[in-house]
Amino acid sequence: LQLHHSGRYTCKGWVESRWSWEPWVESPPVTVTVHGIPVSGVSLSAEPPGGQVALGDNLLLSCVVAAGTGPLSFSWHREGSGTPLGTDPHLELRHVGDNDSGHYHCRVSDGDSVAESVPLNVTVLGEGETRAG
C-alpha cells in the first residue's frame, strides 16, 4: 500500500433473486486510511568493510533504512563539511586521497520525519598500512 491508496471504496455487482433482477447494486462505502511510518533504523555499510580503504582505491558507502514510508530522500555528509556530498542511497568515493578520511553519515527524510545513521569513520590507508581485523 502507498499513502495515495487512502480513500473510500465500494463494490458493485449484479444481484439476482427469484423476484427481480437488479443490475449494479452498490455496497455501502468503506473508508481506507493508509498511515505513514516514520523513518527509523538508518545505518551505513561500506565496501570495503569497515570504511578502511587503500590510497587511490574506491569506497562505496550504502545507506540502509529499516522502516519508513516513501518517497524517501537521502543526503550524505562528512564531519566538517557544510554541503551534502550526494543525494542517492549510495555514495561512491573514487580514487580516495588522504583528504577523504573522516566521519561520514547519511540522513534520510520522508518529508515529515528525519533520521540519521551513526557516523562511520573512513580511514585512508597509506603505503605499508594494512586493514584492521
From TrEMBL:
Residues 28-123 form the Ig-like domain. It comes from the Eukaryota. Transmembrane segments: none annotated. InterPro entries: Ig-like_dom, Ig-like_dom_sf, Ig-like_fold, Ig_sub, Ig_sub2. This is FCRL2 protein. The gene is Fcrl2_2.
